[in-house]
Write a structure and sequence with these properties.
Elements lengths: L1 E5 L4 H12 L4 E5 L2 H14 L2 E6 L2 H10 L3 E3 L1 H14 L6 H8 E3 L3 E2 L10 E5 L2 E7 L2 H19 L4 E8 L3 H7 L9 E8 L2 E8 L5 H15 L3 E3 L5 H12 L3 E5 L5 H6 L9 E6 L3 H8 L3 H7 L4 H11 L1
Parallel strand pairs: 1-2, 1-3, 3-8, 13-14
Antiparallel strand pairs: 4-5, 6-7, 7-8, 9-11, 9-12, 10-11
Helix pairs in contact: 1-6, 2-3
Length: about 325
Amino acid sequence: MITLLCNEYTESVAFVKGVLDDNLIPCTLTIGDDQTISTHLSNAVKSSRAVVLCGNYSYKNLVASTFGLAMNYDKFAEKNVEKLCTLTKQPMPPQYLLDSLCSLPETFVHYTCNFCTQSACFGEISKTGIFVLPNNLYEVKFVADTYFLPFVKKIYPQTLKLTYKIFGLQNKEVVKAVADLATLKLVVLKCTTVNLDSKLTLTFTNSATRQLVDQVNKQIVTKFGSYMYSSKDESLQQVVVQHLKQVQKRIAVAESLTGGQVCAKLVEVPGVSSVLYEGLVTYSIASKCNRLGVSPHLVDTYGVVSREVAESMAKGIK
């Protein structure tokens, strides 16, 4: 169990909890005053594998007073603050503030500060790791990726993740299709969708069997069928270019309301020049008719934004 302690629920706290949740690492969150945090901190050392205090630098004093530790001034932290102030062209904090920023409980160590003058620090008490993090989202992200996650992943081995890329469905449609899997306690689902392009991630706990993983994977493939274009974390344009190279075909694109975005996505892929022939943005009706041979009758009958006109545009560019 990982224990999170703070005075208020900030973006930094939310990020740390989100990281733990995404990695299926069990955690508890307690929000309260310093007395409440001190009590929970003392208990957490007996029951938790790691403790995270996220907020201002006074938490270091709170740790020291809770466990009867002396506070030491850290010259390493002072040099970090000086270096950061030089890079950002801001004045050094006054000495009274440096005394708070650079002091920490004995046996603890400061990490290098990159985005704010408050350095994160780490120490162990009764074999329980204690992280004191600043209330700066960018600093917390750096410390989490560099120090915190590697530490907790040693305690909780890496879980299995499967990623699926799905195109053509709204986020709620994807989530509804896998709603039955969400009831399984051995798997956590996460879905993000941008412009009908979804990334579905399934994270399995360590107790999930290989048979269960294979069964869930088969269900996902069956549920989404042709909507699923990859079982890896790769973009739709990467898959398109790879496929065109494999079948030795070229692509030409006729666009209208997308304003060239389809071609723009394709040219993001290295080596696309071997398969991309051309792209036309025929935005006006006259352009569609003159450049692509679209019949004005189709536009009058079905409207310029219609399946029939789009099909005629595709035939025209071909």
